[in-house]
Amino acid sequence: MSAPHIIWRPDADFRENSHAGRLMRRLGFSDAREFLAWTVADIRRFWETVLPDMGMEWQRPYGELLDLSRGLAWARWFT
């Protein structure tokens, strides 16, 4: 299998001034691949960090961010 064709690479200005770039720096990441690996490895912590950073407001607070008790295929968000 060949490597996927990359259709877009952000330039340095975009990387520095994007919300993702700002969040990466705030969390101490300097490498996008390491940041991506963290977002997958610790998905709960990622979303617990990102939602307040984005200014998300909830009409009612959720009890649990992510319920994986029935497996990944049946994940339940914001229960």
Output the keywords.
single chain, 79 residues, mainly alpha, two-stranded antiparallel sheet, 4 helices
**What is the overall pLDDT average?**
90
Beta-strand fraction estimate: 5-15%
Q: Helix amount, in percent?
A: 40-55%
| Main β-sheet description | 2 strands, antiparallel
Order of helices and strands: HHHHEE
Number of strands: 2
The radius of gyration is 16 Å
The largest sheet has its strands arranged as: 1-2
Give me the secondary-structure category.
mainly alpha
Instruction: List the total number of helices.
Output: 4
Span from first to last CA? 39 Å
Would you identify the regions where 5 or more consecutive residues have pLDDT less than 50?
A: none
Inertia-based shape: globular
Topology record:
Elements: H1 12-17, H2 19-27, H3 32-41, H4 43-53, E1 66-67, E2 76-77
Antiparallel strand pairs: 1-2
Helix pairs in contact: 3-4
